[in-house]
Amino acid sequence: MPKKVDHEARRQEISEALWRIAGTRGLDGASLRDVAAEAGISLGRLQHYFRTKDEMLAFALQHINRLANQRIRARIEALEGEPTPRQVLRACLSGMLPLDPESRTGTLVGAAYFHRAVHDETLRAEAKDGIPKLRAFFADQLRRAEERGELPPGRATEDEAMLLISLADGLSTYVLLDVHGPEQAMRLMDLQLANLFDRKETDPDH
């Protein structure tokens, strides 16, 4: 009987070849042929799974995001007791930053995808799809924190949630550019969380 091929596993292997290229020399000049060579397969075999570079990038990004979500979930589950909203937010935000080689590669693949998405309406729509869901989740955590008395009143908003997401995106870019290192990026994120959670309302008459 012919050997059964696990198509999902093969797609993941191709994605991992793409990641290795992203982590060593970038994706701007990388072709499907380059990825096929890195994966140790023929171009024709690669095109059996991905017809275009955009399809391959989209799958690679989705696979990286799944792995990142698993890492974030593991961090939250490792916390003692019931995690606070602040702890959940910190785990999510740290998972969005390129703090180690694996997450750095994920950020590089994401950057390559987003660069192409700016000029492609279909890719742009897919890139934007997850942002409202993430913003809503962050806003819900902020509302939970406010209900628990852990967040000053008036800060449990979608705007504050979007500022956290935007800060993570900006810090990630600066880590890739070596403006600062992963440790400083996390320190700045912790500073923003402290500013958000620890600021006290002041009396305008004093």
Order of helices and strands: HHHHHHHHH
Instruction: Using the coordinates above, name the CATH class.
Output: Mainly Alpha
Number of strands: 0
Low-confidence stretches: 201-206
Number of separate helices: 9
Main sheet: strands, sense, barrel? none
Pfam family, one: TetR_N
Protein name: TetR family transcriptional regulator
Keywords: DNA-binding, Repressor, Transcription, Transcription regulation
InterPro entries: BetI_C, Homeodomain-like_sf, HTH_TetR, Tet_transcr_reg_TetR-rel_C_sf
Provide an overview of this structure.
The protein is mainly α. It has one domain: Tetracycline Repressor, domain 2 (Orthogonal Bundle), CATH 1.10.357.10. 73% of the residues lie in helices and 0% in strands. The chain has helices at residues 7-24, 32-39, 43-49, 53-78, 85-96, 101-117, 121-147, 158-176, 182-198. Helix 2 crosses helix 3 (43-49). Residues 201-206 have low confidence and may be disordered. InterPro entries: BetI_C, Homeodomain-like_sf, HTH_TetR, Tet_transcr_reg_TetR-rel_C_sf. Keywords: DNA-binding, Repressor, Transcription, Transcription regulation. One of its GO terms (molecular function) is DNA binding.
